């Protein structure tokens, strides 16, 4: 999960991209192209106001995410590449991981592309803009210029071996569908109280959308925790560890913002839907 790249990756293959989740695929409803059809002008004005506010929040979240990503790319490494390899090897051995670990640069990217059938994804890693763990092809890669990211990816590889964290990891590919799923669910239930205009899902679309992303945020945090724990055990370097923790916190920050973004998107989809009726 390194939140630097803006490229979309195939969620079916890359279960745990260390990539800016902001660009992970849930789109925003194009509500701004629709005229309000509400009969109540006051209600229509209110809806439009909320829509505009949500759009401002959404843009702000995206900007915030970019700031965190840039800070992370500019951040220094917590230790030397040799020592990162040492920690990585320890993680692989201790956890019995059946994973190929790679550090990618411009010189070796073609070999990875051919061997694993990769395209844009490996390109981004070579540029230092991404790192990922792909369970299907049992591959964990980080940029040669930012090797410390591999420890987080190996954290994902360990997560993939354990029931609960594997489940959390699996929810990632569905989280982006939350706004759509909520709309569908909303169509299946009637308003809970007579006389009340909105039902539970309509009232809580934002928080429900965010909740859909919580398992992903949790799994990201656990993956980082595993990397930090391994680094702490293998290296005696408290100052370095502080840098690693800071870098991983920045990365997690982008996921939290993405979760809020998903909540906003869910709310927006309901406003769009309201105006369609
Ligand atoms: Zn990650």
Tell me what the structure shows:
- The chain has 277 residues and is an alpha+beta fold.
- It has a domain at 20-78 and 148-276.
- The chain has ten helices and four strands; from the N terminus they run βααβααββαααααα.
- It has helices at residues 41-74, 81-94, 109-116, 120-126, 149-159, 163-175, 178-188, 200-203, 205-234, 238-276; strands at 16-18, 100-104, 131-134, 139-143.
- Strands 1-3-4-2 form a four-stranded mixed β-sheet, sandwiched between helices.
- Strand 3 and strand 4 form a beta hairpin.
- Helix 6 (163-175) crosses helix 9 (205-234) and helix 9 runs antiparallel to helix 10 (238-276).
- The longest helix is centred in the last third of the chain and has 39 residues, at 238-276.
- It is elongated.
- Mean pLDDT is 84; it is low at 1-37.
- The structure holds zinc ion.
- The site of zinc ion has 7 residues, from strand 1, helix 5 and helix 9.
């Amino acid at each position: 999960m390194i939140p630097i790249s803006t490229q979309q990756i195939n969620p079916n293959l890359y279960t745990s991209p260390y990539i800016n989740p902001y660009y992970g695929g849930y789109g925003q409803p194009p509500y701004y192209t629709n005229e309000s059809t509400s009969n109540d002008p006051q209600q229509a004005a209110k809806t439009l106001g909320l829509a505009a506010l949500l759009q401002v929040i959404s843009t702000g979240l995206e900007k915030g995410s970019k700031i965190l990503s840039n800070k992370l790319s500019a951040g220094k490494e917590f230790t030397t590449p040799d020592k990162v390899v040492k920690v990585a090897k320890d993680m692989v051995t201790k956890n019995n991981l059946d994973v190929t670990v790679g550090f990618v640069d411009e010189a070796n990217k073609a070999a990875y592309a051919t061997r694993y059938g990769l395209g844009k994804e490996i390109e981004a890693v070579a540029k230092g803009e991404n790192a990922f763990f792909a369970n299907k092809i049992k591959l964990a890669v980080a940029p040669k210029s930012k090797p410390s990211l591999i420890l987080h990816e190996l954290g994902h590889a360990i997560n993939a071996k354990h029931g609960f964290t594997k489940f959390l990891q699996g929810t990632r590919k569905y989280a982006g569908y939350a706004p759509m799923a909520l709309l569908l669910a909303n169509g299946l239930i009637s308003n809970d109280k007579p006389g009340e205009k909105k039902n539970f899902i309509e009232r809580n679309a934002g928080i429900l959308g965010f909740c859909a992303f919580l398992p992903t945020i949790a799994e990201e945090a656990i993956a980082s925790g595993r990397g930090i724990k391994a680094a702490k055990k293998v290296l005696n370097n408290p100052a370095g560890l502080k840098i690693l923790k800071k870098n991983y916190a920045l990365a997690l920050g982008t996921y939290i913002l993405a979760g809020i973004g998903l909540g906003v998107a869910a709310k927006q989809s309901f406003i769009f839907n309201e105006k369609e009726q």
